[in-house]
Write a structure and sequence with these properties.
By secondary structure, this protein is an alpha/beta fold. The protein has two domains: about 150 residues, Rossmann fold (3-Layer(aba) Sandwich), CATH 3.40.50.1820; about 50 residues, no CATH class. The protein is about 40% helix and about 15% strand. It has a four-stranded parallel beta sheet, with helices on both faces. Strands 3-4 form a two-stranded antiparallel sheet. Helix 4 packs across helix 5.
């Protein structure tokens, strides 16, 4: 794994699995699983681990996350300030909601109406790759869905830490404008040719090399 490779270069690596509302979670949550977690809870968990590291005496912490995890670290770095945080590395950073998608627009409209009427029932929404089958209460869903491209770009621009995003060329074939916009926030953008969202198809070594360059550069 990437974590093992980085640790093999004499870096301390902490790779916690966020609970997403499930104690001792070890597997991913399917779209149609019950999602009772929120972005706010995710940030609190990240902060717990950052405080744990600083309590152990670590002075330089780099946050790295993949896909929705990349959005979580962007959200965290904009809300929590620690002098020990030195950099963000976001892998396959994508908006969690797409205003150009009728599925997303309809889901957001439904969720906001539910929140306004204090409806706390479970409904199906659209979130990233989960099309009309993300099962959650409206408020929990909106805590993620509000992270569209506009909010991500605005937040990246506000973060003063060094920032880097690593994207696969296959994953961004329809998103080059977004990649240009990310670069304009002061975020370093690396594109790995031939890589998909999960950096498969033999691109793992190049991903590792780019990550290590990001970790070691001053």
């Amino acid at each position: 794994s990437i974590a093992t490779e980085i640790a093999g270069n004499h870096y301390t690596v902490l790779a916690p699995t966020l609970t997403l509302g499930i104690s001792k979670r070890r597997t991913t949550l399917d779209c149609d699983a019950l999602h009772l977690h929120s972005m706010e809870q995710d940030m609190q968990e990240i902060d717990w681990w950052v405080n744990w590291l600083t309590g152990k005496g670590y002075k330089k912490i780099i946050l790295m996350g993949h896909s929705s995890g990349a959005v979580q670290i962007v959200s965290y770095a904009s809300s929590y300030k620690h002098k020990e945080l030195t950099k963000l590395i976001a892998l396959s950073l994508i908006p969690l909601s797409d205003n150009n998608s009728s599925h997303s627009r309809d889901s957001n409209k439904k969720a906001l109406k539910m929140i306004e009427s204090n409806d706390k029932d479970i409904h199906n929404f659209t979130l990233t790759y989960c099309i009309e089958n993300y099962s959650a209460p409206a408020s929990q869903y909106m805590s993620y869905a509000q992270w569209d491209s506009a909010r991500i770009l605005k937040t990246l621009k506000s973060i003063r830490l060094p920032k880097q995003t690593i994207q696969g060329s296959v994953d961004i074939s329809n998103s080059y404008n977004l990649i240009d916009d990310i670069a304009n926030t002061g975020t370093r953008v690396n594109i790995i040719e031939g890589a998909d969202h999960f950096f498969g198809s033999g691109t793992e070594l190049e991903l590792y090399d780019v990550i290590m360059q990001g970790i070691t550069e001053k």
